[in-house]
Amino acid sequence: MRHTGTLDDKQQYLTNAPVWRLVMKFAVPSIICMVTSALYNLVDAMFIGRLSTEATAGIGISFAYMTFIQAVGFFFGHGSGNYISHKLGARSYGEAEKMASVGFACPMIIGSIAAVLGLFFLHPLVRLLGATPTVEPFACDYLRYIVLATPIMMSSFTLNNQLRLQGNAIRGMFGIASGALINIVLDPILIFGLGWGVSGASAATAISQLIGWGLLLWGTRQYDSVHVTLRMWRPTPTLLVEIFRRGLPSLCRQVLLCIGAICLNYTAVRYAVPGHEDSTLAAFAVVTRTMMFAFSVVLGICQGFQPVCGFNYGAQRYDRVRQAFLFTIGISTVFLFVIGTLGYVWAPTVVAWFRAEDAMLIEIGARTLRWQCIAFPLVGLSTATNMLFQNLGYTLRASILSSSRSGLMLIPSLCILPLFFGLAGVEVAQATADTLTFAMALPQAIWITRRLGKTME
């Protein structure tokens, strides 16, 4: 392992500097990274919204496949990254390098298989995701290039999380944010300039993801990073078990998010006002991307907490883990309260940015967005608690908690509430899931805080 002196310095810094400063230092690049990525999703939706309501609904259909890509990328990224951060905290640099190489190669292999199958079965895939006959052509056009780029996108999520969890969040930010900015530039050129329409947005995403992936790979070769090398790719049972144990909560969360997105599509169409099925699908697509943009800040804050947690837990500085956890919950909740209040007041205006010509889309979208904003302040504690459990290796607790919002709570809400309230039940289902997840996470947060306090004694 090269540059162990530099990694020793990093270990000393992460286990001694004030925790609030460390969390914010690592959170800022993560926030920039997440916000920029979410911004390109919003820009995609705004540009495509100029084409038609059906085109807007088509990108909503694609969300479920995107969560599948994230599921695999986050699984290997968090699974290998958490192991790497613990090993760096314990100064086991050789083991960290082995894990980095294994974590990098696996999503490339799985993504390549998924890309071949996805391209071959593209039309059945979009129908499975919930596309109506009028939305299906647009969903296929949007997904085609994204499916082709699946291995690169999966690998990018893995590399970004590995860099972030070893304390190199700025390099991860540089790769992800650069790709997102290139996407924003390419969108109008390919969609309108070359006349490619929805396919142009998809091609812009694929090209930008390839460039971002190259920058992330370059980041792993720098002096203070754990190097990714094919010669170190030895997927031993021990390393694969560690990835599974530490990455399972992320996998559960993202897979259920994918299933929840599909259920939302089907339920929205079933309970839509007759003749406005596409407008209803498009409304939920707009709200989903808008909330992802706001949530990206909180996710960035919690990701800033993760390397601080991992290094200090590996160094047995449990008091610092507890301090960082409480600080993360506090600052996330304050931000969510402010953004939720603003979102509630301006909901109709925000939705109209995407498709001002469709009154039904605006009406449904504004109501759904307001429900989400009411429950938004509850999300910070749930997210931070889940990431803490995942970092500390509490696999079962983390998996259950990460599965709650998008699976254990959302899917039953989508099944039950519309039976009594029709479309209004669909609109409130996601906010209900957030509230129930908070109720589950709160006692867990109290328990782990007390446990960390006892460990310090």
> Helix coverage percent of residues?
over 70%
Distance between the termini: 36 Å
Q: What low-confidence regions span 5 or more consecutive residues with pLDDT below 50?
A: none
Helix/sheet category? mainly alpha
How many DSSP-defined strands? 0
Query: Cα-atom Rg, whole angstroms?
Result: 21 Å
- Characterize the biggest β-sheet: none
**How much is the average pLDDT?**
83
N-to-C order of helices and strands: HHHHHHHHHHHHHHHHH
Shape: globular
The share of residues in extended strands comes to under 5%
Number of helices: 17
Task: Give a structural overview.
The chain is an all-alpha fold and 457 residues long. Helices cover 85% and strands 0% of the residues. The protein is built from 17 helices and no strands. It has helices at 4-14, 19-49, 53-89, 93-120, 122-128, 136-148, 150-165, 169-193, 198-219, 237-270, 277-314, 318-345, 347-352, 359-375, 379-392, 395-421, 423-456. Helix 12 (318-345) runs antiparallel to helix 17 and helix 14 (359-375) packs parallel to helix 17 (423-456).
